[in-house]
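Aim 2 progress update. The chain analyzed this quarter is reproduced below.
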Amino acid sequence: MVGGAALTLPGIRIGSRTVIGAGSVVTRDVPDEVFAAGNPCRVIRDITE
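Predicted structure tokens:
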């Protein structure tokens, strides 16, 4: 899921079950099952059940 106004650069891979925070600028690949946000976007925490 990608939050509103998030910008993803071309060629970037976003993993499955990953959440990108609103307004983030994704400049690198993001792994599976994490919450990532910021400018530049970075992993904040793992998503666990």
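The radius of gyration is 10 Å. Residues 21 and 37 are 5 Å apart (CA to CA). These observations will guide the mutagenesis experiments scheduled for the next reporting period.
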